[in-house]
Amino acid sequence: VQLVASGGGLVQAGGSLRLSCAASGAPLEDYAVGWFRQAPGKEREGIACLSTRDGSTYYTNSVKGRFTATRDDAKNTMYLQMNSLKPEDTAVYYCAVKAGVFIDTAQDMCVMTNHYVMDYWGKGTLVTVSS
Fold it and tell me: In this predicted model, what pLDDT tens digit does every residue of 58-72 receive, in sequence order?
């Protein structure tokens, strides 16, 4: 499976961006999907995940209410709509997937990153939010 992320860029604080991650090589519907980010000097963190097994969605607290993760299995694409962006959202953003049968909940995928190794990662896309 190949994942190609796009949509990053430079935006002013308060602005919006939509990231896309197009999958090829396998049906996205078979996978739990997630968005992760790594800010300079920080560890990579899971920020938004969607589980296929129980249909749950998870957002880390820092993005809850501002970011929305969706998927369009017909287009084999996942999205991350980011609103009310803040300078602390500046990071490289990655999309990742893991076979859905191995992920119980979306929170597991985003939080238990030492336990659940993702099957595939997209190359990151840089998001820079200026103050």
Answer: 999 999 999 999 999
Q: pLDDT band at 11, cuts 50/70/90? A: very high
Three-state DSSP class for residue 87: helix
CB atoms within 10 A of CB 57: 16
Angle at 100 between CA 27 and CA 64, to 5 degrees: 100
The length of the chain in residues reads 131
Q: And the tokens for 10?
A: 């430079």
Q: What is the DSSP letter of 123?
A: P
How many alpha carbons lie under 13 Å from residue 87 in its C-beta half-sphere? 2
Tell how strand 125-130 and strand 120-121 pair up.
unpaired
